[in-house]
Design goal:
66% helix; mainly alpha; 116 residues; single chain
Protein backbone atom coordinates (compact mmCIF):
# COMPACT_ATOMS: atom_id res chain seq x y z
CA UNK A 1 0.00 0.00 0.00
CA UNK A 2 2.92 2.31 0.68
CA UNK A 3 4.13 2.06 -2.94
CA UNK A 4 0.71 2.82 -4.39
CA UNK A 5 0.33 5.82 -2.05
CA UNK A 6 3.68 7.18 -3.23
CA UNK A 7 2.75 6.54 -6.86
CA UNK A 8 -0.58 8.33 -6.48
CA UNK A 9 1.12 11.25 -4.73
CA UNK A 10 3.72 11.51 -7.49
CA UNK A 11 1.04 11.37 -10.20
CA UNK A 12 -1.04 14.02 -8.46
CA UNK A 13 1.98 16.29 -8.02
CA UNK A 14 2.93 15.81 -11.67
CA UNK A 15 -0.59 16.66 -12.83
CA UNK A 16 -0.66 19.78 -10.68
CA UNK A 17 2.70 20.96 -11.95
CA UNK A 18 1.80 20.24 -15.57
CA UNK A 19 -1.29 22.40 -15.13
CA UNK A 20 0.93 25.33 -14.14
CA UNK A 21 3.24 24.90 -17.10
CA UNK A 22 2.06 28.00 -18.88
CA UNK A 23 -0.93 29.48 -20.58
CA UNK A 24 -2.20 28.71 -24.04
CA UNK A 25 -1.21 31.33 -26.63
CA UNK A 26 -4.02 33.48 -28.01
CA UNK A 27 -2.46 35.37 -30.92
CA UNK A 28 -4.42 38.19 -32.52
CA UNK A 29 -5.54 37.78 -36.14
CA UNK A 30 -3.37 39.85 -38.46
CA UNK A 31 -6.27 40.87 -40.72
CA UNK A 32 -9.63 41.56 -39.09
CA UNK A 33 -13.04 42.22 -40.64
CA UNK A 34 -13.27 45.72 -39.09
CA UNK A 35 -10.06 46.86 -40.81
CA UNK A 36 -11.88 48.18 -43.89
CA UNK A 37 -13.91 50.62 -41.78
CA UNK A 38 -10.98 51.92 -39.73
CA UNK A 39 -9.99 55.55 -40.14
CA UNK A 40 -6.50 56.95 -39.57
CA UNK A 41 -7.11 57.76 -35.89
CA UNK A 42 -8.34 54.23 -35.20
CA UNK A 43 -5.31 52.73 -36.96
CA UNK A 44 -2.85 54.89 -35.00
CA UNK A 45 -4.66 54.14 -31.75
CA UNK A 46 -4.55 50.38 -32.32
CA UNK A 47 -0.87 50.46 -33.29
CA UNK A 48 -0.07 52.30 -30.04
CA UNK A 49 -2.14 49.85 -28.01
CA UNK A 50 -0.47 46.90 -29.73
CA UNK A 51 2.97 48.38 -29.08
CA UNK A 52 2.17 48.70 -25.38
CA UNK A 53 1.03 45.08 -25.29
CA UNK A 54 4.19 43.98 -27.11
CA UNK A 55 6.27 45.61 -24.36
CA UNK A 56 4.27 43.88 -21.63
CA UNK A 57 4.56 40.53 -23.41
CA UNK A 58 8.32 41.05 -23.72
CA UNK A 59 8.60 41.48 -19.96
CA UNK A 60 6.44 38.38 -19.42
CA UNK A 61 8.65 36.44 -21.81
CA UNK A 62 11.76 37.48 -19.89
CA UNK A 63 10.20 36.35 -16.63
CA UNK A 64 9.23 32.99 -18.15
CA UNK A 65 12.78 32.42 -19.37
CA UNK A 66 14.10 33.10 -15.87
CA UNK A 67 11.48 30.82 -14.37
CA UNK A 68 12.29 28.02 -16.82
CA UNK A 69 16.01 28.31 -16.09
CA UNK A 70 15.36 28.11 -12.34
CA UNK A 71 13.02 25.14 -12.71
CA UNK A 72 15.50 23.44 -15.04
CA UNK A 73 18.33 23.80 -12.55
CA UNK A 74 16.26 22.65 -9.57
CA UNK A 75 14.83 19.90 -11.78
CA UNK A 76 18.25 18.26 -11.79
CA UNK A 77 17.65 17.45 -8.12
CA UNK A 78 13.87 16.95 -8.36
CA UNK A 79 13.10 15.86 -11.95
CA UNK A 80 9.33 16.04 -11.51
CA UNK A 81 9.66 19.84 -11.50
CA UNK A 82 10.53 19.75 -15.20
CA UNK A 83 6.83 19.22 -15.85
CA UNK A 84 6.30 22.76 -14.59
CA UNK A 85 8.39 24.33 -17.33
CA UNK A 86 6.62 26.55 -19.87
CA UNK A 87 7.25 25.29 -23.39
CA UNK A 88 4.22 26.97 -24.98
CA UNK A 89 5.88 30.40 -25.41
CA UNK A 90 2.49 32.13 -25.29
CA UNK A 91 3.94 35.61 -24.81
CA UNK A 92 6.40 35.15 -27.69
CA UNK A 93 3.72 33.93 -30.10
CA UNK A 94 1.30 36.67 -29.10
CA UNK A 95 4.02 39.33 -29.43
CA UNK A 96 4.95 38.11 -32.89
CA UNK A 97 1.30 38.20 -33.96
CA UNK A 98 0.93 41.77 -32.66
CA UNK A 99 4.08 42.84 -34.52
CA UNK A 100 2.66 41.33 -37.71
CA UNK A 101 -0.64 43.11 -37.07
CA UNK A 102 1.19 46.42 -36.63
CA UNK A 103 3.03 45.89 -39.92
CA UNK A 104 -0.30 45.20 -41.64
CA UNK A 105 -1.84 48.30 -40.05
CA UNK A 106 1.13 50.39 -41.22
CA UNK A 107 0.52 49.21 -44.78
CA UNK A 108 -3.19 50.00 -44.37
CA UNK A 109 -2.32 53.49 -43.08
CA UNK A 110 -0.17 54.10 -46.15
CA UNK A 111 -3.00 52.95 -48.45
CA UNK A 112 -5.37 55.37 -46.72
CA UNK A 113 -2.81 58.21 -46.92
CA UNK A 114 -2.67 58.67 -43.16
CA UNK A 115 0.79 60.20 -43.18
CA UNK A 116 3.31 59.09 -40.58
Amino acid sequence: MNISYRLMTALLLTALLAGCAGRTPKPVAIVQPVDRQMDCNAIVSEVRSNSTQIGELGREDGQKVGQNVAVGIVGVLIPVLWFGMDFQNASGKEGTALESRNQYLSTLAQQKNCGT
